[in-house]
Amino acid sequence: MNPLMPFPFPLAPQDIRRRRAAILAGLLSLDEGFCSIPVRGIRAATLEAMLRQYDERFLSGFLRASFGSLRVTLSSRLISAAGKFVYARSASKRLESAEIRMSSDFLFRLNEGPFTLNGLSVATPQEAFLVVFEHELCHALETALYGSTGHSARFLSLAGGLFGHTDVHHALPTRRAEAAEAGLSVGSRVCFSYEGRTLSGVLSYVGKTATVMVPASRGPYRDRSGRRYAKYRVPLPLLRRAEQALL
Fold it and tell me: What is the pLDDT of residues 185-233, one digit of tens each?
């Protein structure tokens, strides 16, 4: 163990797995929505219990003592990342408040694994959720210990010693990856049905819905050539590739 750390570090791989499994079992017993595959929902009390259990089982209460306020929230707007850590300092530079935002957009779309995250292979959406949370927890921990955080060798050392992570990337399916599997990407010429008509345009953004720019003589949007467009937000399953270039 490292005597400079205020918690046991590094942990043996079997110890990490045992602690993670105990936390997962406890969360599943608390929340019926979290048990289903795909996950139907997760209560705020379950998120709070997850933070408390990780802090107690892995960090000896270090995070609670380091932040004036630290909470975990579920965000449906977080679609480009599976999790995010944000924090604020007081006028005296103390870590005043912090938040770990977990993406429900990723969580609620996952079916059975395996999934590869941060160098680990996990079998279920619930395990994937915990591993994403562990990554964000390391950002909080690194900030509390050293005043800043990133994806440096120092961060990877923390993530490896505490949770067995060997990488900082995941292979969870993003909205763009799912669209690409259907042959759709930004710049694709697509068509869709709208109020009994078939409209055609160019796919300009892929998120929870797609943004399609459709030529319109009086449209509010104009490109550099002066051509006008109307913007439509369309669920991805309703799009299909256009056979010919229309713009």
Answer: 899 999 999 999 999 999 998 888 899 999 999 999 999 999 999 999 9
Residue 6 has φ and ψ, to the nearest 5°, of: -85, 20
Q: Position 165: which residue type? A: H
Question: Cα–Cα distance between 58 and 125 in angstroms, integer?
Answer: 22
Q: Assess whether pLDDT exceeds 60 at residue 247.
A: no
The CA-based dihedral angle spanning residues 191, 196, 197, 203, taken in that order and rounded to the nearest 10 degrees = -30
Which tokens sit at 68?
A: 């004036």
Question: What pTM was computed for the model?
Answer: 0.80
**Across the strands, what pairs with 192?**
199
**Do residues 230 and 177 touch, judged by C-beta distance below 8 A?**
no
Residue 244: per-residue pLDDT: 41
